[in-house]
Design goal:
By secondary structure, this protein is of the alpha+beta class. Helices cover 64% and strands 6% of the residues.
């Protein structure tokens, strides 16, 4: 497909496309990825539940790999692929760094894969003739290589600077993998433009593995985008062959899981996939007005600064919407938005999948902004992240010194009983991160650099700085609030005092509870059909529901109950099976 160069809205000089230091880009990615992975336990609920599946696989048998479960409780949701990767990391790194940290290393793996896919997808699309900037009358415009590299760098920086995804990308959930696989899908589509035979296989494998990770719904919504995109950008037989081969590869790569599981374990696998199919159907539907309102409130801040730049791209390139660099990312963005809107209960897990295809669209918008708009975005990033950093430090000092009293009291209400002093090492490190941020601001104000990546680097560096500072200063407090390590050790002590038990009957415990109690206790949970042999029962009772008030069925004697200071609405009770009078 041809595209008239003089109709391009992009005007980029060679100076504006100057090279971003590779060391800076790599440092931002690694700092962003590593911060939040260390110094904490698996957090309730999604993080701990996903870790439980990985941990069960790593310590279990082939059955656990084909039919995901948490210590005997089947999890007929999503798919096994991200858990397979986590289990491999646990087996490889668990003996060195501990199972919990080894599982979280997968977050860094998926982040690196996702950012590489975004970089190369944007680079391939940006180097095409249709995407090139206007040629200046007397020369001096950016060449195709520098222009493509600059846009690819901007795409990665905007991805790192997206506000809503930072917490999710540091949890051992399937969404972390799904973001990377959606990015790989976009890369495969971009690769198919120049190398259709390889691109169709990459796209198909990415979609198949995406279905193995987050269920079939995201892949089903993405496939029409692939068909339409290829019909728009290709001519001749490729316009149909590429999407058909992509579909065949996706179906085959996904089908290998249920087919193999049904062959190896016919009865349990049949029950598993009946429940899995029911879960899949429940995730597709129409949201109510309350859910739509929640989407409308969350989407703008969650995807900031991507959505305004993506909308500007659609406007600036409105005469070239069929061009590959707009059509591919645009159609995949619409597919992920459709997945979000056609859901009974739209969630953050679905919202996060809209981010990868929005990133290249936003990057192309950065080349067409007027100077005033560029400066406004720069100063917005400077103001926002500086204020967040100042607020983080203010509350940290209040937490440590008790001054000012109101700020200290608000922190104390969130973490009652927490009294761990601040670490000098982490405090100094947080200070260095903050100083680096303010040094970057000075560089921006004094030099007024012409490079187009200056705004995105402010967004990425600002969010990375805030993320690093919060993790360094508040990680012990947040971990104290969200961990179950303390209560798990109390339960284990009570079990030992009462004479021990070969296993624990888990009553009203969620799969995530099983995982964290088994990790920190440690306790041995068994499959539900084997719990009749257990001499001890652990019961969870929440104030939010009366459905879990009843004790476990049978002759049990209460021997202990307790709560965690930050979870007063949740009580755990330990029972020992009553001895028969006979």
């Amino acid at each position: 497909m041809s595209f008239e160069a003089h109709r391009s809205p992009a005007r980029v000089s060679a100076a504006a496309a100057a090279r971003l230091p590779r060391s800076l880009l790599l440092a931002l990615v690694l700092l962003y990825g590593v911060a939040g992975l260390l110094g904490r336990d698996p957090w309730f609920q999604d993080d701990a539940g996903s870790f439980g599946v990985m941990w069960t696989m790593a310590r279990g048998h082939a059955f656990d790999w084909w039919l995901p479960n948490v210590l005997g409780v089947t999890i007929p949701e999503e798919g096994p692929f991200s858990f397979w990767i986590g289990a491999v990391f646990i087996r490889l790194l668990g003996p060195l760094v501990g199972d919990a940290i080894a599982a979280r290393v997968t977050c860094l793996f998926w982040l690196l894969l996702g950012t590489m896919a975004i970089w190369y997808a944007t680079y391939r699309m940006a180097r095409r003739d249709e995407a090139q900037p206007v040629a200046f009358a007397f020369g001096g415009e950016a060449n195709a290589r520098d222009y493509g590299r600059m846009l690819a760098d901007i795409a990665v920086l905007l991805f790192l600077g997206t506000i809503g995804i930072s917490v999710r990308l540091h949890q051992t959930t399937a969404e972390t993998a799904a973001v990377a696989l959606t990015s790989v899908t976009l890369f495969g589509m971009a690769l198919a433009l120049d190398r259709p035979r390889i691109g169709e296989w990459v796209t198909g494998l990415a979609l198949g593995v995406l279905a193995l990770t987050r269920g079939v719904a995201p892949a089903l919504f993405a496939l029409p985008a692939v068909f339409i995109a290829m019909a728009v950008v290709f001519r001749g037989s490729d316009r149909w062959r590429v999407p058909l081969v992509t579909t065949a590869v996706a179906v085959a790569s996904f089908a290998a899981w249920p087919v193999t599981a049904l062959q190896l374990y016919p009865e349990p696998a049949a029950d598993f996939f009946v429940a899995w199919r029911a879960w899949t159907l429940e995730t597709i539907g129409f949201p109510g007005l309350l859910e739509l309102g929640r989407i409308g409130r969350n989407f703008p801040w969650y995807t900031w600064p991507l959505w305004p730049l993506a909308l500007w791209t659609a406007y600036a390139w409105r005469h070239a919407l069929r061009a590959p660099h707009i059509a591919l990312a645009g159609l995949l963005s619409l597919a992920m938005l459709a997945r979000l809107l056609f859901s009974n209960s739209p969630s953050e897990a679905m919202l996060i999948l809209t981010v990868p295809p929005l990133v290249p669209l936003a990057a192309f918008g950065a080349t067409t902004l007027r100077r005033a708009a560029e400066n406004a975005l720069d100063w917005f990033a400077i103001a926002l992240f500086s204020l967040l950093a100042i607020g983080a430090w203010a509350y940290f000092f209040a937490m440590q010194t008790g001054t000012p009293p109101k700020m200290a009291a608000s922190i104390a209400r969130l973490i009652p009983g927490f009294a761990e002093p601040a670490s000098p090492v982490t405090t100094i490190a947080a200070g260095l991160a903050s100083a680096a941020w303010f040094a970057l601001i000075v560089w921006r104000v004094r030099t007024r650099p012409p490079m187009l990546w200056r705004g995105p680097v402010l967004a990425a560096a600002g969010l990375t700085m805030v993320w690093v500072v919060i993790n360094l200063l508040y990680m012990p407090a947040v971990n104290y609030s969200r961990t179950y390590a303390g209560i798990a050790r109390q339960v284990e002590e009570q079990i030992e005092k009462s004479g021990g038990s070969p296993c624990v009957f888990a009553h009203r415990l969620l799969p995530a509870h099983r995982a964290v109690f088994a990790l920190h206790g440690p306790m041995r949970f068994v499959r539900p059909e084997q719990e009749a042999d257990c001499a001890v029962a652990l019961h969870r009772d929440t104030r939010r529901s009366r459905l879990d008030d009843e004790p476990p069925p049978g002759p049990w004697v209460l021997i202990w109950e307790g709560t965690w200071p930050t979870r007063q609405d949740e009580t755990f009770r330990l029972y020992r099976r009553a001895r028969s009078s006979n």
